[in-house]
Design a protein that fits this description.
By secondary structure, this protein is of the alpha+beta class. The protein folds into 2 domains: 37 residues; 133 residues, Immunoglobulin-like (Sandwich), CATH 2.60.40.1240. Helices cover 32% and strands 32% of the residues. A hairpin with a 3-residue loop joins β1 and β2. About 3% of the residues have low confidence.
């Protein structure tokens, strides 16, 4: 084999390796973008009225043996904002009434059981931090004006096949579609 042939074959091999490398890099980039599409502040549903704005950032699926057979837990990452100029009893008027609906029209409210679900989730996922100050504030009867609080606020037990389509505050009749 002549030197020119060897150089030519070597150059062609380098081109092939480079193309393969670029294809793998592009594949990994696209896959990463699809797997991690939500930024930390993405909102998948929002309800509001003249005094509050409540944003649902994400629902985290959480399987645990405490769930009834055929069910799973969902943890809601929520921001509550008092947009008014007065204190609000956020817990009684809003937080304790946060509800989700599935595509069959079934409603699931978090309530006190939801607090236990959130607590179990955080205990089993020690790497996830809860903003406890915001969590407590979200249930406060003296939620200050022009204030925001974000936390893993609600836990829900739903059937494993449930497709959540709505988010809201039942007591206030505020509803929004979940993206």
């Amino acid at each position: 084999m002549e030197i020119k042939e060897i150089i030519f074959k070597h150059t062609e091999a380098k081109k092939l390796y480079m193309k393969t490398y670029q294809e793998i890099f592009l594949f990994l980039l696209i896959t990463t973008m699809m797997v991690y599409p939500q930024s930390k502040n993405t909102v998948i549903s929002e309800v509001k009225n003249s005094e509050v704005k409540i944003k649902l950032h994400k629902l985290i699926e959480f399987n645990d043996s405490k769930a009834k057979s055929g069910n799973k837990f969902l943890i809601a990452d929520i921001t509550i904002e008092n947009t008014s100029d007065k204190k609000i009893n956020m817990g009684a008027d809003y937080t304790m009434s946060i509800t989700i609906k599935d595509d069959k029209g079934n409603e699931y409210r978090s309530g006190l059981k939801g607090e236990g679900i959130v607590s179990t989730f955080l205990t089993k996922n020690e790497n996830i931090e809860q903003n406890q100050k915001d969590h407590t504030l979200a249930f406060s009867e003296n939620f200050p004006p022009k204030t925001k609080a974000r936390s893993f606020l609600c836990g829900f037990e739903v059937p494993k096949d449930a497709k959540i389509v709505s988010f809201g505050v039942k007591k206030q009749n505020l509803w929004s579609t979940v993206k």
